[in-house]
Fold each of these.
Amino acid sequence: MPQLAYFLLYVVVRLFALLPFFVLYLLSDILYLIVYKLIGYRKKVVRKNLKHSFPSFSQQQLQKIEKEFYHHFCDLFVETIKLSSMSTETIKQRFSVTNMEVVEKLFAQGKSCISLSGHYGNWEWSAAYGLYIKPPAKALFLYKQVKNQAFDKLIQTLRQRFSVECIEKDFALRKMLQYKKQGVATFTGFVADQTPTARNIHYWTQFMNQDTPVFDGAERIARNMSYALLYIDVRKIKRGFYELTLIPMSDDVSATTEFEMTEQYVRLLEQTIQRNPSYYLWTHRRWKHKRTQPTTSNIE
């Protein structure tokens, strides 16, 4: 049954993906009216997140960000569908990398690297960074499996169209160790602003003016495996066009203090969001955990 559901889902997505961009964006505009105006999908969550993230903003400013976010959110939906039919040339034109030489230099030094990004811009298209990784190096993309098997398989099919290998987060370390033993350099992408489960919270900080638990797994893996850390800064140039810039964080994480790189990542992500808040995923319940007691590993 999951296989049949996946097949039917893929056929529907593939048919819609054959539509040109201008038609898909027209559908996105209609979807915006339904999702935002009619249904009000997670509108309370979005308003709460924005209000707490930008306490000094006026109601008019917050409303402007809210509307622009929902327009972008609907664009994300049709852009993800379009992945199934986009050519290599098209995705590279619409999602460009400005400074891939940063990674090439690390590979030349015999170093693998981990990139940190957030749910900003179009994180589904960001899997296309695999097109910029020259063999024999490998591009890996970590993901969290969703409950619906058909939908999960569809998303991985779309992501892996452009030379990236998707790895479920629970198997990430095993796969990275495997490539390291084989002497294969890897570029591994972490979308690291996920909310950690309560039992996996090791670090709290202030993020967007709020007390926030932060996923620190990327830093720990980079430290233990002697990998370099990079931050992916994404800019939305215009509708359907994004630009990715790699910002070096550390090529020797072992020389940094515990949680230093995690804190640096949070600050860089904040800068990206504050530059244009409309392109962040405000529907996510990012601040559902509350700190119950202080720990020694916190930045106040």
Note: The chain has a mean pLDDT of 93.
Amino acid sequence: MADKVSFELVSPDRLLMSVDADAVAMPGMEGDFGVLPGHAPLISALRAGVIEVEGAGGDSPDRVYIAGGFAEVAADRLVVLAEEAVVVADMDRADLEARIQEANGELEAADEGEERRLAEGKISVLQEMLGAAR
């Protein structure tokens, strides 16, 4: 059995991360779960939240916010297909707060129905990102 799990994080436009990790924790639809080397195979939908990658280098885990996606787990490999992904260390709190204010303005101006639902979803994602940025 391998002592690392090969982890790849892919967004629609590029490969964001490809590392050998000791463990990876992620936000599954049914609850958070971790993947260690030798994990049983599975496919899981992921909700918006933070993926933590341990043992890829450095003392603290690498943290990446995803806006949902899917994970495919094998005994020695984990691939996450993310709808959108941002490295938490690269997040700018002031920018996120400004984007939330702008989105609130869009929500106030939105008509009922689809336009309003999209504005509410945008605010929700931005607030989750702000929470992840600490």
Note: The radius of gyration is 16 Å.
Amino acid sequence: MTFDTSRPAEALAMPVYKRVLLKVSGEVLMGDTPYGIDMKTVDAVAASVAEMARQGVQLCLVIGGGNIFRGLSTAAKGMERAGADYMGMLATVMNALAMQNALERMGVDTRVQSAIPMQTVCEPYIRRRAQRHLEKGRVVIFAAGTGNPFFTTDTAAALRAAEMGCDALLKGTSVDGVYTADPKRDPEAIRYDRLTYLDVLAKDLKVMDASAISLMRENAIPIVVFSIRAPGALRDVLAGQGVFTVITETVDANG
């Protein structure tokens, strides 16, 4: 997966959001490998993030850990749930450090803040410090979820988006929006252009968990689901273009 970042800044459409949180699933970072971190894929995602950071968009990230360790599935096999979730949180720190390395090689100032303090590796999560980093144009990567077991990285992304006062939560996945079913398994699945938060909950659509959807609804933060694998997708989404699904409180008559 590669991104063309050679386009001059003046050729890029004006972003419609000033501050966003990008949630990237851990599985995306596997690329075409069955497990772990594929650095070519990390570099590709980082290049897209770097491009928009240079455009003046204030970006913070939450990256899942499913490419390394998934707490819930391990707990289902007999491991105690809280311990399994803590291991999953540590996996997100590994992904965050890989993304930080890629971004800083591209000349983008980046900070990793962990909900589980580990001062020798990264900063502890401090809301006002994170806000200041964003104001200074630094990309902030939030790691270790909420710091508590039984909460997913989707909920962590929703929480941080609300705390940072983000204009939108962008969820970068391996598919280009929300479908009636898994499009990888069901060729008849239909993609939605727009949905309401209540639609997602009522239809039990597997976008984000219910607590994350509810938190976004309470704070009136739109959720935009798109394929982070598509070249230039982040650029297009931030310009209000391309293919994606938007989740808001209401769907207008033209939506």
Note: Residues 20-248 form a domain with the Carbamate kinase fold (CATH 3.40.1160.10).
